[in-house]
Amino acid sequence: MRYNSFNQPIGDEVKSFQNPKNPSINTIEGKYSKLEHLNSSHVDDLFTLLCAKENDANWTYLPNEPIHDSDEFKALMNTRIESQDPYFFAIIDKATGKALGILSLLRINTKASSIEVGHIHYSSLLKRTRIATEVQYLLAKYVFETLEYRRYEWKCDSLNEPSKRAALRLGFTYEGTFRQALVYKGRTRDTDWFSITDKEWPNIKQQYEDWLDEKNFNSDGNQVNKLSIK
């Protein structure tokens, strides 16, 4: 513990602090997938997979109500293509070249060296796949190693149990609940906060890489060992 001249406890010294960078990359590539800065070429794939009525449940905890009209969806995507915060990516399956979902970096605070992953919208084809995990690894690596942020956040509706489980599985630490944090879709939302810090990243990174290794999957493509970050 450090103390100042008044014998008050103070935080650890941060040496040579520099503001991190804003997201600006077009492609982040992995073994099974890649993240591409959202553009018009992704819209048709995403409309087909995200906007069918049988997938309406995937919109419950997102800011928008389900969209079934292609022009309305294209208008939303156009605003996201132009947006710098949030900065949107399409999730691409390298085997097919198809866009399977969306995520973004948002609440970009270079002065605080803090950034959040959010607006995560996985199609049903993407859920519980290697790609679903790999893109989270790729984005976290970009945040810590290229952009050089100190803090990486995940927030979700406190009633969104799949999102909370995913955050913990991916190595985020639960920090608490902001009660009545906002109103959306005509209802109240308590927001659960999770984070990873730059000091934690090297250990978490290694566990991602061990899980993503091809040796961790059998001939049927099923995982041998679960991802359970400690």
Automatic annotation (TrEMBL):
Pfam families on file: Acetyltransf_3
Region (Disordered): 1-21
Superkingdom as given in the UniProt entry: Bacteria
Domain N-acetyltransferase stretches: 35-173
InterPro entries tied to this protein: Acyl_CoA_acyltransferase, GNAT_dom, Ribosomal_N-acetyltransferase
Protein name, entry field: GNAT family N-acetyltransferase
Organism: Mammaliicoccus fleurettii
